[in-house]
Amino acid sequence: MTAVDARPESTAGARAESATDASAAPRPEAGTVLRFPAGFRWGTATAAYQIEGGATEDGRTPSIWDTFSRTPGKVRNGDTGDIAADHLHRMPEDVRLMKELGVTDYRFSVSWPRVQPTGRGPAVERGLDFYRRLVDELLGAGIRPVATLYHWDLPQELEDAGGWPERDTAHRFAEYAGLVAGALGDRVSTWTTLNEPWCGAFLGYGNGVHAPGRTSDLAALRAAHHFNLAHGGATRVLRDRLPSTAEISLTLNLHALRPLTDTDADRDAVRRIDAVANRIFLDPVFHGRLPEDLVADTAGVTDWSFVKAGDLEVTSAPIDSLGINYYSPSVVSAGSSESPSPWAGAEEHVAFTPAEGPRTAMDWPVDADGLYELLTRLRDELPGLPLLVTENGAAYDDYADPEGQVHDPERVAYLDAHLGAVHRAIEDGVDVRGYFLWSLLDNFEWAYGYSKRFGIVHVDFASQRRTPKDSARWYAEVIARGGVAVGG
Fold first, then answer.
1. Which residues 6+ apart lie within 8 Å of 23 measured at CB?
2. How far is CA 466 from the centre of its chain?
3. Fewer CB near the terminus (10 Å): N or C of the chain?
4. Burial track 328-359 (b if 16+ CB lie within 10 A, e otherwise)
5. Helix (H, G, I), strand (E, B) or coil at 413
6. Do residues 212 and 339 lie in contact, with contact meaning Cβ atoms separated by under 8 Å?
7. Cis status, amide bond into 439, omega within 30 of 0
8. CA 293/CA 299 separation, integer angstroms
9. How many angstroms from the chain centroid is the CA of residue 422?
10. Active-site residue among 247, 373, 391, 410?
C-alpha cells in the first residue's frame, strides 16, 4: 500500500477552512450519475509482501520486510507477512473475486526476492511461474494485468550490501526489471517501475518506521536519488525489452500540502515540504534537474556529490503515464518536527497541524479535495501526461456480523467522495485514465501488521475465508454503470 506512515499520525491533516474554492462547486442533484469517459480503467490493487505469503517457497529468500517484521518492536503484535492473505495459494479464488466485481484492471507487484532471491544473477523460474500463472488467470478473466516491479521488498542481501543509499542497488534493479519483462512482457502491457519511492527512502532510511529501519537524513537523500536512477535505468531496459505499445509508468505518493495560515512563514513551510516530498522526484523524472531550493535546504546534510554526471539524463527517461497514490492531505506551518523525522532538511523549520472532522482508522482525515488539488496541479505542471489514480482507499474497523456480512458504510462514503473528486478533475480537463481502489483484500499493513483493514474483501486471517464487504458490492455497481450515482 502507499500512504501508510507517509507522515506522523498526529500531524496529517487539513482544517475545514483550508478547502479550495473549487471544492465549493455545487454538487449535482441526487440521482445524477457522474459518468466517467469510455474506456476508463476501473481497477483494484495489492502488493506482494502484503498478500502473497509463501515467504520461503519457490526459492524466495528474505526481503527487508521479512527482517524488519522480525525485529522486536517494529511491527504491531510482532506480525509478519509469512502467510499474509495466502494469495500465493489462493490466487485463482482472488481473480474470481475480481471478475465478479467487474474490474477491468488489476495492479499487483512482483516480489523481487521471489524472482531474483539475492538481487543478482539469473531469475528463479519457479518464482516467475507464479506471476505467469497470475497473468494467465487475469487475462482469462478479461482483466488487464498492471505489473509493479517494486513495492518495498528489497532482497535482504542487497540491503546487507548497503541498500538504496548505494548506487549499485539502482543498477541491480534495472537488471531485475529486464528479467521480469522477459518473462511477462508478451502478456503485460502496463508496467510501473516503483511504488512510492518517497516511503522507501524517507520512511525506510530517514525516520526508520519502515524497513530497513535506518535513521539518517543523508541515507534518505541518497536513497531518493538512487530510486530515481533505478526508475530511469529500468525504464530504458523496459523500452528495450517490451513491445513498442507497452505503457511504462511510475507511481508517486505526492503530498497534497496546505499552509496553516496565509503567512510568508507558513508558505515557506509548504515550499520546504514540497521540495523534499514531491519535487525531489518530479523534477529529476520530468525535468532532468534537482530542485535548487532542495539542494540549498539540505546543504547541512549533503553536497549532493553522489549525483554523478549523466544521472539526471537517466532519471528523466520519458514515461507514458504517472500513477498517483492519495489518502489525505497535510497542513503545514513554521515550527519544528519530532526527531527522527522523514523531512530531511526541513524538520527544524516545519510543523504539522492535526485535522478536524471525520477520520479513518489510521487517524487520517477524510478530505477528497486534496485529491482534486493534486490532479489539477499535475494538469498544470505536466500538461499532456496521462494520469492514473493507482491507490485510494481507507481503513476502518470492519468485522463480520453474526450473519457473516461486513457492513462498511464509512468506506463507501470515502470512496464515493474521492471518485467524485476524480470526476470533477476530469471535467476540469485533467487526463485521468483510471482509478485503482486500495485494496482488494485486507492484508499485512506494514508497521501496523494485521490491525488495519483497507480491503473491500474481508479476510479472516485464521481461516483465510474471503467475504466481500458492502463496499465491494458498491464498487461493482459503480463499474457496471460507469460512474458514481450522486446520493447513492
1. 369, 372
2. 23
3. C
4. bbbbbbbbebeeebbbbbbbebbbbbebeeeb
5. helix
6. no
7. yes
8. 10
9. 17
10. 391
Amino acid at 445: E
Q: How does DSSP classify residue 206?
A: T
Say whether 390 sits in a helix, a strand or coil.
strand
Contact indicator for 9, 362 with CB cutoff of 8 Å: yes
Q: Which three cell numbers stand for residue 323?
A: 500513477
Dist. CA 144–CA 140, nearest whole Å: 10
Identity at 6, one-letter amino acid code: A
The three three-digit cell numbers of residue 95, written as one number: 481473480
Sheet harboring 330-334: ordered strands across?
257-259, 330-334, 350-352
| Residues written for the chain | 488
Q: Is 61 exposed, middle or buried (0-12, 13-18, 19+ CB in 10 A)?
A: middle
pTM: 0.94
How far is it between the farthest Cα atoms of the chain?
63
Label residue 185 exposed, middle or buried (CB < 10 Å: 0-12, 13-18, 19+): middle
pLDDT tens, the chain, 488 aa long: 543 333 333 333 333 333 444 444 566 777 799 999 999 999 999 999 999 999 999 999 999 999 999 999 999 999 999 999 999 999 999 999 999 999 999 999 999 999 999 999 999 999 999 999 999 999 999 999 999 999 999 999 999 999 999 999 999 999 999 999 999 999 999 999 999 999 999 999 999 999 999 999 999 999 999 999 999 999 999 999 999 999 999 999 999 999 999 999 999 999 999 999 999 999 999 999 999 999 999 999 999 999 999 999 999 999 999 999 999 999 999 999 989 999 999 999 999 998 778 999 999 999 999 999 999 999 999 999 999 999 999 999 999 999 999 999 999 999 999 999 999 999 999 999 999 999 999 999 999 999 999 999 999 999 999 999 999 999 999 999 999 998 76
Beta bridge mates, 192: 148, 249
Cα-atom radius of gyration of the chain, to the nearest Å?
21
* Residue 474 CA: distances (Å) to CA of 186, 305, 434, 477: 34, 52, 17, 5
Taking the CB of residue 99, how many other CB atoms lie within 10 A of it?
Answer: 16
- For the question of residue 391 being annotated catalytic, the response is yes
- Could you tell me if residue 118 is left (phi over 0), alpha (psi between -120 and 50 degrees) or otherwise beta? alpha
Q: How far apart are CA 61 and CA 320, in angstroms?
A: 33
Whole-number Å distance between alpha carbons of 278 and 257: 10
